[in-house]
Amino acid sequence: MRIDNYSLSFNCPGCPSWGTAIVNQDTQNVHLIKEDVASNIVIGMMHKCVTINTNDLSLPIGKGSKIYYGNKGFEGATSEPMMVSVFDKVFINKIRVDAPFVMAIVRDKANDHKGRLQLKYTPKLQYGQVSNQTFFEKAVQALDITPDTPWVVYDIDIEGQEVLHFKALIGEDVKDLDAQLRNLPQIKYTPTSSGIEHSLIKPAEEQTFFVSEEYSYISAIKTKPFLILGGFSGTGKSQKVKELAFATCPCDGVLNVSETSPGNYLLVSVKPNWHDATDITGFRSSVNRNYYVTDFMRFLVKAKQYEEQHVPFFVCLDEMNLAPVEEYFADFLSVIESRKRCADGRIVTDAIVPASVFNDTDYADDFNIFLKLGLEPANPDWKADEISALSAEEQAQAFVRQDIVDELKRDGLTIPSNVVIIGTVNMDDTTNSFSRKVIDRAMTFETIVGKFGKDYFSGDVSLNYFKNPRKGDLFLSDEVRASQMIEEGRFILTDEEQTKIVDFINNINEDLEGSPFKISYRILNETILLYRSKKKIEEIMKADDGFEDGVVFNTDLNTIFDDILMQKILPRIEGDYEKCSRCLTKLSQRAEDNCWKKSLGKIEFMIKRFGNDKSGFTTFWN
After folding, report:
1. Closest among 507, 482, 513 to 582, alpha carbons compared
2. Per-residue model confidence as pLDDT tens digits over 79-128
3. What is the 3-state secondary structure (H, E, C) of 571-598?
4. Element (H, E) at 136
5. Using one digit for the tens of pLDDT, what is the confidence trace for 168-223?
6. Which contacts of 373-378 are long-range, i.e. CB under 8 A and separated by 24 or more positions?
7. Which residues sit opposite 329 in a β-bridge?
8. How large is the average pLDDT for residues 255-262?
9. Among 258, 271, 313, 452, who pairs with 303 as Cys (CB 3.0-4.6 Å)?
10. Handedness of CA 138, 139, 144, 147 (dihedral sign)
11. Is a pLDDT exceeding 90 seen at residue 64?
């Protein structure tokens, strides 16, 4: 929740007016909860709700923060309590405060605001023995500041429906507060441009449960957010992408409005006639003087609005090899390699749609590219021609997420760090094969249907929302270059580990000598990143009560080498006996010597494809 308006009182450090209207209402010094995130606050409060006993509750209601106690007080009050919640896990700027916090929803009874719902979280709010005044005293200690140090909360969020997060400006940062708050990102997204109301889909279960195979996908995604899932038709490749999206989708009242597809999921069905990037990145129409905006572009912009919250957004590029990937997806293949980790930890890329598209002043008056991208205007009634008629100064404040508009004009449309691209492929005579350029840039998996058992009847796949979605940090890639990561001390390799990794790459290249399949620095880099990703995932899961029963998750280097051989090296190898047999034979022996069981089985399968007369053609894919 973004707090837009504020009134700072230095007599109550950390305390603006501490009252927020749950519906939009233009009122001076009143915090406004945006409509699209109000439900997230309410759902979290319901999860931590306590029984309303007015004898145990005291809170300020009405002008002057007059305090009413018990039933007698509420009878004459200008508001009545609707719900009270007590949070025992509270953080300010990710610092834990060792005290509970009380929040309440009240309904106004006065004529001027009759029926209005407000969120109350004043320092004087108290339920039983839990007092927010105690919380603020503890907060000063936790933040290591003096009682007279000014600080102001500008954002409230509820994580996992039970952890309360405050973001605050403290001390010197409070100076020029107006300017700083204007530059803070606002969290708002309009689910539809049609104005149609959607009923929210309630979560069906507490949390999803992953199996070992899914943790392999997650490890690869955290290494590099571009996967290829191959296999024959009907193995559940596309469904797997949607499962991961459901597992991570927050029920915030915006993303949980569809029974069939969570808001952090986009299905892009590739067509055989795609031979350029226009169906992905759009095109400029000189006839209509507008720009053809694609669903893919809109999805990237929507993902940017959740990037700071670390919500993964999944693009399923379905049947991605029905058309030549190098043609329609060329821009992405280049941009994915431009990923860079900045000094502040952000992962950024070059533009997939240049900034000139968003700075074009020659569009028709009735066209606004930012409206087409799904960004909400500051005035919800504004149409494109009305925005075009605004002055330059007014246009600089024309959108709720003006920060994204400014970014698009400055940097173009880049790939947000929370976007994961997963392509599904069927390798048969109706599809196009992959070049090594594509394989090099992706983490590759093959989905295989094993033997069916009666466990099929024990439960369906998890295509529903969850009360406690999986943490985005489990999935999201936060490193790009292993050498930078190691140099800056974020991951340490022992001398022995360094030797093993370098020897692995050199030995594989020796086996590939004389073939066109030799590997380079990219695979060395991603070997280290995969090793680090698995270690990080293990660390996250241990902090969250560990992996599910039956999950096998190995982080030793020998397992990493087996994974890299399967995901990055063997998919590169295809051709006839003369081209491939020598290197496959050497790799087979090395896999056997090192107990790389997955790779050994796949190599044996690839060698058998030559046939007894050695006239066959081999490939990684079934």
Report:
1. 513
2. 677 788 899 889 898 899 999 998 888 777 665 566 777 777 777 788 88
3. HHCCEEHHHHHHHHHHHHHHHHHCCCHH
4. helix 132-142
5. 888 777 665 555 554 544 433 344 444 444 567 888 888 899 999 999 999 999 99
6. 373/293, 373/297, 373/298, 373/301, 373/408, 374/189, 374/190, 374/193, 374/298, 374/301, 374/302, 375/301, 375/399, 375/400, 375/401, 375/404, 375/405, 376/188, 376/189, 376/190, 376/400, 376/401, 378/402
7. none
8. 91
9. 313
10. negative
11. no
Q: How far apart are CA 96 and CA 90, in angstroms?
A: 6
- Write out the two tokens for 79: 């508001």
Q: At which residue do the structure tokens 């024959």 appear? A: 232
Name the β-bridge partners of 83.
105
Q: State the burial class of residue 5 (Cβ atoms within 10 Å of its Cβ: 0-12, 13-18, 19+).
A: middle
Check pLDDT > 70 for residue 68. Answer: no
- Indicate the helix (H) or strand (E) that contains 537: helix 521-543
Q: CB of 230 within 8 A of CB of 445?
A: yes
Report residue 22 as tokens: 């749950």
What is the Cα–Cα distance from 618 to 232, expressed in whole angstroms?
Answer: 16
Q: Does position 227 have pLDDT exceeding 70, yes or no?
A: yes
Q: Which two tokens stand for residue 313?
A: 């957004």
Element counts in the chain: helices (H) and strands (E): 22, 27
Q: How far apart are CA 297 and CA 317, in angstroms?
A: 14
pLDDT at 617: 93
The per-residue pLDDT for range 561-607, each reduced to its tens digit, is 999 999 999 999 999 999 999 999 999 999 999 999 999 999 999 99
Tokens read off for 429? 């005579």
How does DSSP classify residue 125?
A: -
pTM of the entire structure? 0.70
299-313 burial string, b = 16+ CB within 10 Å, else e?
A: bbbbbbbbbeebbbb
Q: Which residues pair with 164 in a beta bridge?
A: 90, 158
What 3-state DSSP class applies to 402? helix
Task: Quote the pLDDT of residue 79.
Answer: 67
Eight-state DSSP code of residue 184: S
| Beta bridge mates, 313 | 419
* pLDDT single digits (tens) 147-174: 878 777 777 888 777 788 888 888 777 6
Task: Work out the number of other CB atoms within 10 angstroms of the CB of residue 333.
Answer: 17
Q: Are 375 and 399 in contact (CB under 8 A)?
A: yes
**Cα pseudo-dihedral 64, 67, 71, 74, rounded to 10:** 10
Buried b (16+ CB within 10 A) or exposed e, 95-130: eebebbbbbbbbebbeeebeebbbbbbbbbbbbeeb
**Nearest in space to 571 (alpha carbons), one of 218, 220, 234, 275:** 220
